[in-house]
């Protein structure tokens, strides 16, 4: 259930931490607990496809719980805008890579890949495919814990299910299965 509330009454907005095709992500402080959160505000739209995407993401987040998936806290509406509240994670993998021009330590790489594999394995047990795994959607905290985020194009799917769009995932990260299967694919993408 989505509550109607005033974001400023519970959260202090500290700044913008990201912006995507569908919305803006703010770093905020919960005034009651003093903890930081990330709040994704969806851009206003009348586009039915965008509204469907928002609903799908919200449904996914409400049912997914895993240490390597960003923790969804709540959703609320204000003045027709949908807001999703998440745990705040310090940076994404792209930002981490940009701070290390000579690359990451091999042990850290193995640690991050292991966590990514655990999160994807969990998603597959839930019959969910993310469809947009990329460095910007992999959050990394100060303890190097990795968390998958952005479930806007994720969906429940059964192996070999047809009729799925092949226009998902960021161009540079599209898998061969996505490029060559004409909308019939499963968890491998």
What's the structural blueprint in terms of helices and strands?
Layout: E1 3-4, H1 7-10, E2 11-19, E3 23-30, E4 36-42, H2 48-63, E5 72-78, E6 81-87, E7 91-92, H3 93-98, H4 106-125, E8 128-129, E9 138-140, E10 146-148, E11 155-156, H5 176-180
Parallel strand pairs: 1-5
Antiparallel strand pairs: 2-3, 3-4, 4-6, 5-6, 7-9, 8-11, 9-10
Model description:
The protein is an alpha+beta fold. The protein is globular. The strands form 3 sheets. Strands 1-5-6-4-3-2 form a 6-stranded mixed sheet. The chain contains 5 helices and 11 strands, in the order E-H-E-E-E-H-E-E-E-H-H-E-E-E-E-H. A hairpin with a 5-residue loop joins strand 3 and strand 4.
Distance N to C terminus: 31 Å
How many whole angstroms does the radius of gyration measure? 17 Å
- Class by helix and strand content? alpha+beta
The overall pLDDT average reads 84
Number of strands: 11
Low-confidence stretches: none
Put simply, the count of helices is 5
> Element order, helices and strands?
EHEEEHEEEHHEEEEH
Q: Shape from CA axes?
A: globular
How helix-rich are the residues, as a percent range?
25-40%
The order of strands across the largest sheet is 1-5-6-4-3-2
Largest sheet: 6 strands, mixed
* Residue share in β-strands: 25-35%
